[in-house]
Design brief:
Blueprint lengths: L1 E2 H12 L11 E4 L4 E2 L1 E7 L2 H9 L4 E6 L11 H12 L3 E4 L2 H5 L5 H9 L2 E9 L2 E8 L6 H8 L5 E3 L8 E4 L8 H6 L4 E4 L6 H8 L2 E4 L2 H4 L1 H15 L2 E4 L7
Helix pairs in contact: 5-10
Length: about 250
């Protein structure tokens, strides 16, 4: 058993979350029991995830996409039912958004870069004045299929029509498609993100920068899993990752 406050304090300090300006309210969002036996990790706060976490005996859940944002709705409908379920089951809800995207070790982008074996990493992808992703180079060129294999998933969309070798890769997990021009400016041969939009196809054609959308959810499983291992090692408490599969 571990103190809720000790876990939150450790993660806040590890991710340096207080130094990151974010639309998410990072840290504790819904208060449950003070002493925690089991922590369940996942990508997004939703009822299916909460139900599975409760069934697994979780006292605390840690997610990347929480419930409380700067533009919170009134507490009605789906939003009310989610909070009601957490309170009824005495489950703590904690969330870390940008701090878990940009962290140089367990962040989503660092973890993707690590799996691809990227070298000479540099911060990439400016978002509200802060670079949240990474850009680096492969030792040897990889085809799109080989990249998918290294990441252990099938991409939703690939624009891989250019003949040039893929050496330099820029990575921003989640909804980073709007940073396409930054990938071109960085000299990337391939831009990897989570989501895609209508404009991406023609940007890929006109810039001749290859594009890969892993799915917003899939691109952000890496960070919570890595953080889970750090927390388990630090507190020697029971942990689990619950995958509420989402292709988008």
């Amino acid at each position: 058993m571990v103190s809720r406050e000790n876990v939150i304090k450790f993660i806040n300090e590890y991710l340096k979350s207080e130094t990151v300006k974010d639309v998410s309210q990072n840290g504790l969002q819904v208060e449950g029991v003070s002493d925690v036996k089991k922590i369940v990790f996942g990508v997004s706060a939703n009822m299916e995830f909460f139900r599975r976490a409760a069934a697994a005996g979780a006292d605390m859940v840690v997610v990347h996409h929480g419930l409380l944002w700067s533009d919170n709705p009134v507490i009605t409908g789906v939003f009310r039912r989610r909070i009601e379920f957490l309170i009824k089951n005495n489950i703590n809800l904690c969330a870390w958004h940008l701090p878990l995207d940009m962290h140089p070790a367990v962040g989503n982008n660092a973890q993707i870069a690590q799996r691809l074996g990227l070298k000479n990493l540099k911060p990439f992808g400016e978002y509200h004045g802060v670079k949240i992703g990474f850009c680096g180079e492969l030792k040897t060129p990889l085809a799109a299929g080989e990249i998918e294999k290294k990441l252990g998933l099938k991409a939703n969309i690939i624009f891989n029509t250019w003949k040039k070798e893929i050496i330099k890769i820029a990575v921003v997990s989640g909804g980073g498609q709007g940073m396409f021009f930054q990938a071109e400016d960085a000299g990337a041969d391939l831009f990897i993100t989570g989501s895609a939009d209508e404009f991406v196809q023609e940007l890929a054609r006109e810039t001749e920068v290859n594009f890969m959308a892993l799915g917003h959810y899939n691109s952000e499983t890496f960070g919570v899993k890595a953080l889970m291992e750090i927390v388990a090692k630090k507190f020697k408490t029971e942990v689990a990752f619950i995958d509420v599969a989402n292709k988008l």
